[in-house]
Give the backbone structure.
Amino acid sequence: MLRRFFSIVPKTVQLWASVLVGCALLMGLVVGYKSADQGAVLPTVSAYGSAALLLGAVIAIWLLCLGFVFADARRRGMRPVPWVLVAGLFPHLLGFLLYFVLRQPIASTCTQCGKTVPLHQPFCSWCGASLAARNGPPTTDSLQQASQ
Ligand SMILES: [Zn+2]
């Protein structure tokens, strides 16, 4: 499940998420070190560091989820940008919930032009090629259509 999630999230988003966690941790350590009293450096630094790490991790997970919605929407032939906005802007993860309720089944690619076409659509909306043979078991009708 988690491996599938990470295989869908774009690599650049994963990179940015890990950079973000690293930066948050570093900032927490620096701020903790600067605000620490003499003698109590270690506890203060570790407290600030773990708080920053937690905050960074939460933001990074949110970023990864947005990246997932973007890639998953594109894979399903849905508009990725509005869905990322919906997922990111609705409070309390409502946008993510909405996305998973409303998302389309995984799109197929057109054999003629290679563009993504929603599943169960009989014709390619880009080049007009018949996709009937690709959806469900082939019938004699769709086979005749495909050979024409
Ligand atoms: Zn096509």
